[in-house]
Design goal:
This protein has about 230 residues and is an alpha+beta fold. The protein contains 9 helices and 4 strands.
């Protein structure tokens, strides 16, 4: 028997929550390692030049990176590929790409779309994540103008919608695709559900999550997903 698989992650990283949600759903025994938010490249240096989280290390000591390939690998290796086999493969691939291109980019505007929300977000991250004494304070007070002024403000301006409207439009598009079913995958979630759930779940520790809670179909699906991984 090999070692217990591990997942190096940040607790506020949407890509990490994609993978963790699937791990919890299938009941895989995994040890979680929270990396230092200011030293990510160093702490996952064992994975080569990747320099990001999540990093999954299997029972044989082999590491795997990149969240969507990781979803597919974990499903194939530890779940007999059951989630990948739900429904039409081409449709699933199309919507995985949709989630990775649309939902992933929507997380920055809602968390950092105004200077006030950016400050709340960076302070909250400094409380949740693993930081040293000085780096915690540096991130909380120096990080928010960078995230707001350089990244989020440009995305909001380019899109033209408020962060709330952007998310509501995405949730409408996503849940409409479910038809009369409870999940994108049908009567049970598939890989697309876990990709979308991870992006939405990463917002849940922050006050901005309340902007999503009045999307009736979206929050109903989210709560079903939440129940499935507990």
């Amino acid at each position: 028997m090999g070692q217990t698989p591990t997942l190096h992650m940040l607790y506020t990283c949407p890509f990490c929550w994609k993978v963790r949600g699937l791990i919890e759903y299938i009941g895989l025994d995994v040890e979680y390692f929270s990396v230092n938010g200011m030293k990510i490249k160093k702490e996952v240096g064992f994975a080569g030049d990747w320099g990001k989280v999540p990093v999954f290390t299997d029972e044989n000591g082999e590491y795997h990176t990149d969240s969507t390939p990781l979803l597919k690998h974990i499903d194939a290796t530890y779940n007999d590929g059951k989630l990948a086999s739900l429904g039409d493969a081409e449709r699933q691939l199309q919507w995985l790409e949709w989630a990775d291109s649309k939902m992933s980019k929507a997380t920055i505007p809602i968390l950092y779309g105004s200077i006030g929300s950016a400050l709340k977000t960076t302070v909250r991250i400094s409380q949740i994540e693993k930081f040293g004494f000085f780096s915690k304070r540096l991130y909380a007070w120096a990080g928010f103008p960078i995230m707001w002024g350089i990244i989020a403000r440009k995305r909001v301006k380019k899109d033209g919608r408020t962060p709330k409207q952007l998310w509501h439009d995405l949730l409408t598009e996503f849940t409409d695709e479910h038809g009369s079913k409870s999940y994108f995958g049908g009567d049970e979630p598939d890989l697309v559900d876990f990709a979308a759930f991870g992006y939405m779940r990463s917002i849940s520790p922050f006050p901005q999550f309340n902007l999503l809670e009045d999307h009736a179909k979206g929050i109903a699906w989210y709560k079903r997903m939440e129940s499935s991984v507990q």
